[in-house]
Write a structure and sequence with these properties.
By secondary structure, this protein is of the alpha+beta class. It folds into 2 domains: 2-96, 3-Layer(aba) Sandwich (Aminopeptidase); 105-230, Aminopeptidase (3-Layer(aba) Sandwich), CATH 3.40.630. It has 9 helices and 12 strands. It has helices at residues 2-8, 15-21, 53-56, 75-85, 106-114, 127-135, 149-155, 196-211, 222-230; strands spanning 27-30, 36-41, 44-49, 67-72, 89-97, 121-124, 158-163, 166-177, 180-187, 214-216, 218-219, 235-245. The chain has a 7-stranded mixed beta sheet with strand order 1-2-3-4-12-5-11, sandwiched between helices. Helix 5 crosses helix 8 (196-211). The longest helix is centred in the C-terminal third of the chain and has 16 residues, at 196-211.
């Protein structure tokens, strides 16, 4: 069965899918005939194989929230999501970023770290910073896929931006797969446009490269694409997703 599931997701270059297939994070669910599968991790669900209403309407126990970003493999899945959820499904465009290991200019990234504005400090996310992320809604996604600090310490990796000991921005592993992480970057609203995301993003990429991990990036919007490109990534393509209330 596992080999069949791998084939359903074949050539889908998404690390969240890899995390699920590798059994590191997230879950894989199939329909009864096992010709369709869903990879779900955090807020994201990817649907592959023959479009299955059974799977589109299935909410596994691991999904505690009432919001899922559903990503269809093709137009058939997209039509099914729209049919099942109607006005509860908001069609959006997301932006895939190329996964290229040898593109990063370490000297440029180090300069970005050093350009952190005066008064701010970059610190590796350890237990105190992990708890700060948990306590702030805007920062929760930085560590939300790790139920406790021990799990984050074992599998996660992140950089916090502090001002006077207060968390104001961060870059972290939303998820982990065997050869890398999926990056999550968040900045408190009143501290945006100060270069904080650029500095902590650069630091996290450098940390990943030092550990032999690939820092994968997927963009929700064009601002995220611009930041990724500034850090050395290259844009790949647009794709359709649905923000669904379930």
């Amino acid at each position: 069965m596992k080999e069949n599931i791998y084939k359903l997701f074949e050539n889908w270059n998404e690390t969240i899918i890899w995390s699920c297939l590798q059994g590191i994070m997230g879950e894989i669910h199939t329909n009864l005939s096992e010709d369709a599968a869903m990879a779900i991790l955090g807020d994201f669900a990817f649907y592959a194989g023959n479009p299955s209403e059974e799977l589109v309407q299935y909410k596994p126990e691991c999904c505690k929230q009432n919001f899922i970003i559903m990503v269809p493999q093709n137009a058939g899945w997209a039509e099914l999501i729209e049919k099942c959820y109607e006005k509860k499904a908001k069609k959006v465009t997301r932006y895939a970023i190329k996964k290229e290991m040898e593109i990063f200019d370490k000297e440029k990234l180090q300069r970005a770290v050093e350009e952190l504005p005066s008064g701010y400090v970059l610190k590796k996310i350890e237990e105190a910073e992990y708890n700060m992320c948990r306590e702030n809604d805007w920062a929760n996604d930085l560590v939300s896929q790790y139920k406790e600090y021990k799990a984050y310490k074992n599998s996660g990796l992140g950089i916090a931006v502090l001002k006077a000991g207060e968390l104001v921005a961060g870059a972290s592993s939303y998820s982990r797969y065997d050869k890398g992480i999926e990056i999550e970057i968040d900045t408190r609203e009143d501290y945006r446009r100060k270069g904080l995301a650029y500095a902590c993003g650069a630091k996290l990429i450098l940390e990943c490269l030092e550990k032999g991990l690939y820092p994968s990036w997927d963009a929700q919007n064009k601002w995220s694409v611009a930041l990724a490109e500034k850090l050395g990534y290259h844009f790949s393509h647009e794709y359709v997703a649905y923000e669904v209330m379930v």
